[in-house]
Design a protein that fits this description.
Layout (H helix, E strand, L loop, with lengths): L2 E6 L4 H5 L10 E2 L2 E2 H12 L4 E6 L11 E6 L4 H11 L5 E5 L2 E2 L2 H16 L4 E6 L9 E4 L5 E5 L10 E9 L1 H10 L6 H10 L4 E5 L4 E2 L3 H14 L8
């Protein structure tokens, strides 16, 4: 079984700069706080346990005894990841940033791909998308089999389709151990991903057409429109 981990240790400074005073974990998407959306998604996907790492001072009431909410004050997403991995039970992990938005069908596709590839021996799995709408995207170059061969701050020259990370990851037990080592010298998630490539670990990908990151007020508005359009007729957006 795979354990779920939600990273919500950031302060949402870009949302705040746009006039959104609500902490990122609690911004409303499809009528509910985003972190509750993600908890429900991970429950529906079948995660054996769910751990949410939430920035200190942001109050989140666990919706069920099966959900663990831990307060943290970490300087980066990599530090939040390592803090979360330290309390998640042993085994493979399905990890998402709190600002990641996809329709339910795409969450199922990504989860199925991540769990299948981890079982097949992938060290880590990255959800990627050709939809680029971020100020600091993390570009992924892949080989013909879909394995990640480079993590970069700019797209690689060539004819291969451009894809970027979407804030959802699968980590094997080995990747979990390496993260705890990497954080002693690195402080960014992209640096850890580059390290995974540098040590020649088998890193695979799952691609979906679009993933929205809730970095700005316009992203919230775009997510609402997208989820409403993606929802089954007469059903909820997620």
């Amino acid at each position: 079984m795979t354990h779920g981990l939600i990273l919500a240790g950031g302060d949402g400074s870009r949302l705040a700069a746009d006039g959104v005073a609500t902490p990122k974990a609690l911004v409303s998407v499809a009528g509910r706080p985003q972190i509750l959306n993600l908890i429900q998604i991970l429950e529906q996907l079948g995660c054996e346990s769910i751990t949410s790492m939430v920035r200190e001072g942001v109050l989140v009431q666990p919706p069920s005894p099966a959900v663990t909410v831990r307060a943290c004050r970490t300087p980066s997403s990599l530090h939040t990841l390592v803090a979360g991995l330290a309390v998640v039970p042993p085994g493979p992990v399905f990890c998402t940033m709190v600002d990641t938005v996809m329709p339910a069908e795409d969450w199922r596709l990504v989860y199925a791909g991540v769990t299948e590839q981890l079982r097949a021996g992938s060290f880590a799995v990255l959800a990627v998308t050709p939809f680029v709408d971020d100020e600091r995207p993390v570009y992924v170059a892949r080989d013909a089999a879909g394995r990640a061969i480079e993590i970069a701050d700019s797209p690689r020259n060539g004819t291969a389709p451009v894809v970027v990370t979407g804030g959802v990851y699968g980590f094997s037990p080995g990747a979990r151990r390496l993260a705890s080592v990497a954080v002693t010298s690195e402080n960014r998630m992209r640096a850890f991903l580059k390290l995974l490539i540098a040590v020649r670990a088998p890193i695979t990908t799952v691609e979906v057409a679009k993933i929205i990151d809730l970095d700005h007020k316009r992203d919230l508005e775009a997510a609402e429109r997208w989820l409403a359009a993606s929802a089954p007729q007469g059903g909820a957006a997620r």
